[in-house]
Structure formats: C-alpha cells, structure tokens
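Anyone up for a design puzzle?
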C-alpha cells in the first residue's frame, strides 16, 4: 500500500496509474477507522481498479473547537486496517498541505445546508464541500464513496458534483452498525461505558419512530415521544429528530407525502454528539 503525505508524490503516482487506463475509487475519511469505513473501501474495490483512501481531519468542517481537538486520531492503526483490506493507496496530508492559506471560499447549499446538521453546525457543509472539492481535483477519481450514515452529506455532495460538473459518480454505502444497533462512528470511542450503552437509544428511537409513523402517528407526536425516550436516560439529550424527503431534505408532516422518506436523528451523550438515520421503507 502506497502512503502519501504530500501532493506532489500523490500526483506522480496518479500519473503513472493513469497511463494504464485504470479506474480510481476515492474514499475520503477523517481516520479513526472502523468497519463502516472499511465497507466503503470494499465497495470501491469491487467497482474500480485502484482504491485511494484519504485520512484528514478537516478543521474547516468543525464549528466546535473541543470536538476538533478531541477528534480521535489513530493513524498507525488506520494504516494497518487499510493495508489488511487491500486498499491501494492512502493520502494523509497535514493542514499545511491542504490549506496553504486560511480558506476564504465558502459554499451555500440553500435549503440543503440550513436544516438538521447544517442548522446545528453552521459552516459544516461549506467546510466539507471545500475539502471534498480539493480531493476531487487532486485525485480525479471515477467514483467517490460516502456513507449513508451522513445522509445529508451525501445530498450536499451530490448537489456539489452536479452544479460544479465534477466528472465522477457518487456512490453511497449503507450504514454499518454494532450488534446492538448503534451506528459505527469514530466518535463512539469517546463514549464511557454507560454512555455507550445509553447511545443505543438513537437506533431504538428511530426504529420505534418508523413503526409509529407507519401506523399513522404524526411526526410532532413521534418527536415528542422520542425526545422523552432519549432524555429519560441520564446524560442524553436529543438535538433533533426530523422526518424529511431523502432527496430534497424538505421536512414532511406526513409519511405519504414523499416517495422516499427518511428519519434523521442527532443526540448528545455527555459532550459527544452522535447522528443516525433510517429510511422508512
Ligand atoms: P468520517 O471519517 O466520519 O468523516 O467518515 C468517512 C466516511 O465514512 C463518510 O462518508 C461516512 O459517512 C462514512 N461512514 C462513517 N461511519 C459509517 C458507518 N457506520 N457506516 C457506513 N459509512 C460510514
């Protein structure tokens, strides 16, 4: 497995493989890898001749300094995991390599970045779009892989690729969960054993809400009930539960008004913020 910390050697490697006509799959990550990330690598390996992962904790997408500072960084372990699953190359730059100057370019995705994650983490998707655009330009992949765990991110990046005419396809990969239902996340490492146990309420809340909505309960009543379910646990706080159309991310006041509704949830376990989602069908 090739490891690149700088752009110049990455570009010469890409030049070499380009001459063979290989297809390239790109898997952007922030490291602290788990099986959710590895599912993206596996999907890319199936579709492409060469898979390139990136590991970079992008400061531009954090609106909370403590979250950035405490974000788990486990590079040696990450590289071992990637090698084991047969990833071909990894780009793991530092801040100076990615941001020669403090960034001034901003993205506005209209409604797509004003709801849910965008509402509670202002500037987050602008930072995501910036770093993802840089990676697309640096690697020129044929396909790029993103997890459905960050469904709003998939919607924003699809729009970015469409509007800026990036010449690549976006592939989304289903959520990988722990056996008790908790969606795998790098932030799970920061949970203490009690918080870890309580965090299963996100998935329990989603599955309960899905059934309640399908049986005709109103989104408002379901939100109130899920909030109570989450907040009866010490140290847990619901930030949002939204029923939306999964393409437009417009909020829905009934399940039947969308062909493909999705339920999205964000909650805090102590100071660790967790997200999850579930399609209704
Ligand atoms: P991150 O390192 O958290 O930025 O995640 C990198 C990529 O992995 C993103 O596209 C995420 O959506 C995806 N990802 C993270 N957790 C999971 C999971 N549990 N299942 C599937 N994909 C995931």
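Challenge accepted. My sequence:
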């Amino acid at each position: 497995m090739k490891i690149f910390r700088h752009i110049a050697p990455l570009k010469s490697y890409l030049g070499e493989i380009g001459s063979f006509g290989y297809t390239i799959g790109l898997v952007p990550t922030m490291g602290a890898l788990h099986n959710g990330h590895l599912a993206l690598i596996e999907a890319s390996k199936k579709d492409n001749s060469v898979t390139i992962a990136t590991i970079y904790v992008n400061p531009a997408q954090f609106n909370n300094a403590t979250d950035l500072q405490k974000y788990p960084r486990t590079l040696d372990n990450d590289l071992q995991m990637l090698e084991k699953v047969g990833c071909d190359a990894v780009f793991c730059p530092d801040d100076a390599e990615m941001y020669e100057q403090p960034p001034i370019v901003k993205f506005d995705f209209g409604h797509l970045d004003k709801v849910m994650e965008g509402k509670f983490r202002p500037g987050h998707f602008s930072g995501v779009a910036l770093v993802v655009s840089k990676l697309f330009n640096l690697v020129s992949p044929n396909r790029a892989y993103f997890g459905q765990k960050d469904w709003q991110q998939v919607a924003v990046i699809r729009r970015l690729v469409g509007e800026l005419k990036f010449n690549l396809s976006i592939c989304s990969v289903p959520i990988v969960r722990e056996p008790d239902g908790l969606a795998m996340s790098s932030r799970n490492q920061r949970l203490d054993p009690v918080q870890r146990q309580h965090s299963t309420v996100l998935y329990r809340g989603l599955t309960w809400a899905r059934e309640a909505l399908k049986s005709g309960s109103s989104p408002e009543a379901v939100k109130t009930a899920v909030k109570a379910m989450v907040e009866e646990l010490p140290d847990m706080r619901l930030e949002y539960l939204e029923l939306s159309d999964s393409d437009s991310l417009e909020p829905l006041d009934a399940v039947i008004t969308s062909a493909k509704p999705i339920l999205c949830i964000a909650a805090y376990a102590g100071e660790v913020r967790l997200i999850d989602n579930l399609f209704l069908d």
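A detail worth pointing out: The chain has a mean pLDDT of 96.
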